Amino acid sequence: MADARAPGNRRRPRQSDIARSAGVSQATVSLVLRGAPTGMSLAPATRQRVIAAAEELGYVPDPVATRLAAATNAMLGLYTFSATFPTDVAHSYYPILVGVEEEAAAQGQDLILFTGSARAAARADDPAAVRRVRVADGCLFFGRHVPAEPVRRLVEDGFPFVYIGRRDEAGVPYVGADYVSASADVVARLAAAGHRKVRYLREHDQALASVDREDGVLRGARDAGLDTLVVRTDGSDLDALLREWLDAGVTAVVVEQTDTGAALAGLGAAIDRAGLRCPGDLSLALLGAPTGTRGSAPGGGAAFSGFDVPMRAMGRGAVRLLLRLIAGDLEGPSRRLLPCEPVEGGTIGPPRPPNRTTGRA
Q1: CA separation (Å) from 182 to 174, 214, 216, 245?
Q2: Is residue 273 domain-shared with residue 326, that is, in the same domain?
Q3: Do residues 99 and 212 share a domain?
Q4: Is residue 349 one of the residues assigned to a domain?
Q5: DSSP 113-170
Q6: Do residues 188 and 253 share a domain?
Q7: Residue 108: helix, strand or coil by DSSP?
Q8: How many domains does the chain have?
Q9: Could you tell me if 88 and 158 lie in one domain?
């Protein structure tokens, strides 16, 4: 067998080489190099021979093997149910990635990014794709739509994971945003400004974030006694609907914000085409920070009134919660909702007076 010390021999020395050089078993070498309690109880002369042989041979522990021996990889998974990660700074999910990365670095953890583009599965929600996350100590998941079956299996197997966003499934730990309270507060602000007829514009899908926003809007409307109607849209052809609202005396519109921004973009385009100003002709509230290039409202360019979603704090909080689950020392709830920050903005004002020169009643 080739000598690991021989000139020109590029093979990395192994623990078996150290055992042979020190005249001990490979198990003894492993105990000494890992610093295991049993290894520390060995005779000092034996430990010293092992250490000296390791230094002479230039032995460098395999980082993967070292982590496995310690029963932890110091690696956290981050899985998105989409083909690519939202790395564009304008993407609504980007602050989540920033928060996760910041907290992982602060906690001395590496990150493994998983997407739906894996060769192991045709879809991001395929159980084979989700099973890949088990190479990490635990995993963070995010995305508007989450398949129930792979997540159920993770719960049943006891694999540590945290979802970023509220989930309904039993046993799923999460860190999310309190959209219900924040949305109700926005409607209360409209009522305090004097609005009585309000419309809520949202997209068609049934993501929990959308459901919670709608629940909050309806709760706020009930509490304030407002005339409120929920309208769903894909963002196309809102011109006729906007005219209908104005003719019916609607003075404020609340819009949900999503990763697509379809409802907001469609309404903004219709407001621009109608030559209306916000809030002079129509008050506008946004449930979530705007994404993309539309950072200010149509018809005047003021900053949107509404609330900001604590995406960055959700990412950081999810990492902390996951590490507590991995360590098995969680105290308190494993489901947490963070408050959303109100944004004053400039798109909520008093209702327009009747018979204003816009031609709307």
Answers
A1: 18, 11, 7, 24
A2: no
A3: no
A4: no
A5: EE-TT-TT-SSTT-HHHHHGGGGSSEEEEE-S---HHHHHHHHHHT--EEEES---ST
A6: yes
A7: coil
A8: 3
A9: yes
For residue 2, the one-letter residue type is A
> Given its phi and psi angles, is residue 284 left (phi above 0), alpha (psi -120 to 50 degrees) or beta?
beta
Q: How many CA atoms lie within 13 A of 290 on its CB side?
A: 22
Burial of 152 per CB tally in 10 Å (0-12, 13-18, 19+)? middle
Q: What pLDDT score was predicted for residue 6? A: 46
Mean pLDDT per 10-residue segment, the chain (361 residues): 46 84 88 65 83 81 52 83 65 86 95 69 58 86 78 84 91 95 98 97 91 97 95 92 95 91 92 94 91 63 91 96 89 89 95 63 40
How far apart CA 125 and CA 122 sit, in angstroms, is 9
Q: Identify the three-state secondary structure at position 13.
A: coil
Handedness of CA 192, 198, 201, 205 (dihedral sign): positive
Q: Do 301 and 319 share a domain, yes or no?
A: no
CA–CA dist 128, 153 (Å, integer): 11
Tell me, rounded to whole angstroms, the distance of Cα 137 from its chain centroid: 18
Length reported for the chain: 361
Identify the domain containing residue 48 by its residue range.
15-69
Rounded to 5 degrees, what angle do the CA atoms 269, 347, 214 make? 80
Q: Which of 69, 94, 113 is the last residue of a domain?
A: 69
Q: Are residues 183 and 303 in the same domain?
A: yes
Q: Token pair for residue 329?
A: 């020392």
Sheet holding 75-80, edge to edge: 110-114, 75-80, 138-142, 161-164, 174-177, 335-338
| Tokens representing residue 76 in the block | 């956290």
